[in-house]
Amino acid sequence: MTSSAEPDAPLRVGTHSGSFHADEVFALAALRLVHGPLEIVRTRDRDVLDGCALRVDVGRRHDPASGDFDHHQGGVGERPNGIRYASFGLVWREHGAAICGGDAIAAAVDAHIVSAIDAPDNGQELFDLRIDDVAPYTVSGAIAALNPAWDEPEEDERPAFDAAVDLASTVLRREIARAQARERATVLVREALDRRDDPRILELEQGMPWRDAVLSDAPDVLYVLAPRSSGEWTLQCAPAAAHGFANRRSLPEAWSGLEGEDLQRATGVTDAVFCHVARFLAVAGSREGALALARLALVDEA
């Protein structure tokens, strides 16, 4: 006997019509993770919005109990670093921990993507240009690019909006998965830190995210060794800071850009494969080769 029960109707959520932005698009993507499929209504009609279960980035009210997540009226707060909450951040503050399975992962996702979307939506600059007219290409810019151009048909707007929400949903799911994976990796990296023979060299049993743990827990680590799926081993320099390209100790200048026999002659390591011209990465054919390169780099005076 089959059930005649009808599936629950999608939750009706209202947001504003017109040009769409990363703020409300990602807020809706987060609400999908909470409530499942949504019926998204794009309007500024107050009566229509009042008939929705939730309202995002519209209505000039923030009250999760009533289903309102807007920041345009002000007074919704800011993070300790000064970045004010936009609608994405308000939804994330309410639901992020439940979506991610814990506060730590939710905070990591907030720091990595939610804050970066909230800030420009609130008119807060996150960087200074170092090269005139060249700015980082952001996820907010990618969402904005999906809006139809001024001279494209008006009927193109809704399909473009739906595509933007789908894209945001994919990105958000992957960012959550990456944050969860980094958390799992941190446990393994800390275990590897406890096993070090030389405090300056960290050896991992497989490739995994290690930078955060090294930056926070291991100021003495200079080089990190890990295997590749190909069987080769990488030797990477520990960064000097979370941002930028400075290393705690770069690989020797004499190795810069060398590969194959040239690098083998320069180092005496018979399976040396490659050294990046920026001297933050080298590759060898074996663990022993990578470890030999690390030890040579430690005694180099260049």
Description:
This protein has 302 residues and is α/β, with parallel strands linked by helices. It has nine helices and ten strands. The chain has helices at residues 22-35, 46-50, 87-100, 103-121, 139-145, 157-194, 211-217, 260-267, 287-299; strands spanning 11-15, 38-42, 54-56, 62-63, 68-69, 201-203, 223-227, 233-237, 272-275, 281-284. A five-stranded mixed beta sheet has the order 2-1-3-5-4. The chain has a five-stranded mixed beta sheet with strand order 6-7-8-10-9. Strand 6 (201-203), helix 7 (211-217) and strand 7 (223-227) form a beta-alpha-beta unit. It is elongated and about 75 Å long.
Write down the overall geometry: elongated
Instruction: Sketch the major β-sheet.
Output: 5 strands, mixed
Instruction: Give the averaged pLDDT, no decimals.
Output: 95
Order of H and E elements: EHEHEEEHHHHEHEEHEEH
- Classification by helices and strands: alpha/beta
How many helices does DSSP assign?
9
Which band does the percent of strand residues land in? 5-15%
Q: State the helical fraction.
A: 40-55%
Number of strands: 10
Radius of gyration: 25 Å
> Could you give the distance between the termini?
79 Å
Q: What's the structural domain tally?
A: 2
* Strands in their spatial order, largest beta sheet: 2-1-3-5-4
**Unreliable spans:** 1-5
